[in-house]
């Protein structure tokens, strides 16, 4: 209800490979709110929503700034999330207009409390990752191809979410990354959404059980219940683990070669085997490639097959499995997977 100047706080860790134009982003949001979203005078501590996400961004920046990575990493705390994703919307539009090569965004929002209101669940061993299925960007243009290939569950953001689960659970102890197959919580939104709408791979990381007594609440005590988003309700060990999931993923993504190019599956003949072929990535040195495969009903990749070649024939039918190909660095860092297109 009054003119306000907003700003996103950004730090950029430039990639060491000048030929590598990939960008990976970790985000949280600076602003917080109380019960009335238009109340701009009341105290709104925002410890969890979204001090937790901003703390994760800052900690990843602190640690990663001491190292070099081939790809560029942007650490950002956006403004105006509670007023309609204003800061993230501005940044996503700017990135689209300027042609930024954003390969993945990890949005962290409400990730530091271990308990739920109403159901009274206490659990600091799981974190949710939300990802869209059918792409919001240019869906009408791509819908026929998606249906033809059966890729309703294999958009760029969904692939990023699977990657976050695999890498997060590999490197962070005592945490399970739970894939939630929707862009965000039911009828709700977050700062990854403008990036998804602009065609970028973007996911949301959020605690497993939200406590609505400590979210979007005026500071008060009613009937013995303390309301408000206060630091006393945080689980900092849980936040540490969730930050580690982000750190492991950012480091692996930025250290990995870029994804293989022109990945194809041969379809010129009817066969019960599957022949895949591809070209080397545009940047980065590769030790080899992983072939990922899963049954069509499986939510995650079930098998990884390593090869140093740029083609492979597998004794599995493309009718019954999904396949993808990853580049692998000499240190074992994997790129994001690429689903093959039809080739002849």
From TrEMBL:
It comes from the Bacteria. One of its GO terms (molecular function) is aminopeptidase activity. Coiled coil: none annotated. Gene3D superfamilies: Immunoglobulins, Zn peptidases. Residues 259-344 form the Fibronectin type-III domain. GO terms for cellular component: extracellular region. It holds the Pfam family Peptidase_M28. GO terms for biological process: proteolysis. The keyword Secreted applies. Keywords: Aminopeptidase, Hydrolase, Metalloprotease, Protease, Secreted. It is found in: Secreted. The keyword Secreted applies. Its main location: secreted. InterPro entries: FN3_dom (IPR003961), FN3_sf (IPR036116), Ig-like_fold (IPR013783), M28_fam (IPR045175), Peptidase_M28 (IPR007484). This is Leucine aminopeptidase-related protein. The lineage of its organism: Bacteria, Pseudomonadati, Bacteroidota, Chitinophagia, Chitinophagales.
């Amino acid at each position: 209800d009054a003119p306000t100047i907003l700003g996103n706080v950004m730090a950029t860790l430039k990639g060491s490979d000048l030929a590598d134009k990939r960008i990976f982003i970790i985000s949280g949001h600076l602003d917080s709110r109380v019960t009335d979203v238009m109340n701009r005078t009341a105290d709104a501590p925002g410890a969890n929503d979204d001090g937790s996400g901003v703390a994760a961004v800052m900690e990843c920046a602190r640690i990663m700034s001491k190292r070099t990575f081939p790809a560029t990493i942007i650490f950002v705390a956006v403004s105006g999330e509670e007023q309609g994703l204003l800061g993230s919307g501005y940044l996503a539009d700017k990135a689209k207009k300027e042609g930024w090569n954003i390969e993945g965004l990890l949005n962290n929002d409400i990730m530091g409390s271990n308990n739920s209101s109403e159901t009274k669940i206490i659990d600091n061993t799981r974190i949710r990752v939300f990802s869209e299925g059918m792409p919001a960007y240019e869906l009408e243009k791509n819908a026929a191809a998606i249906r033809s290939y059966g890729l309703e569950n294999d958009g760029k953001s969904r692939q990023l979410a699977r990657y976050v689960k695999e890498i997060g659970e590999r490197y962070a102890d005592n945490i399970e990354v739970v894939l939630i197959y929707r862009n965000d919580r039911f009828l709700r939104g977050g700062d990854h959404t403008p990036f998804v709408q602009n065609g970028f791979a973007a996911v949301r990381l959020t605690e497993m059980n939200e406590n609505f007594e400590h979210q979007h609440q005026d500071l008060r005590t009613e009937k013995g219940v303390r309301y408000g988003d206060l630091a006393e309700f945080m689980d900092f060990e849980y936040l540490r683990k969730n930050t580690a999931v982000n750190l492991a993923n950012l480091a692996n993504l930025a250290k990995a070669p870029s994804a293989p190019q022109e990945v194809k599956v041969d379809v010129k003949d009817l066969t019960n085997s599957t022949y895949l072929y591809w070209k080397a990535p545009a940047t980065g040195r590769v030790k080899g490639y992983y072939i990922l495969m899963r049954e069509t009903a499986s939510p995650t990749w079930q098998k990884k097959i390593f090869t140093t070649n740029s083609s492979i024939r597998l004794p599995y039918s493309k009718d019954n499995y999904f396949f993808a190909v990853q580049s692998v660095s000499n240190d074992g860092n994997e790129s994001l997977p690429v689903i093959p297109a039809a080739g002849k």
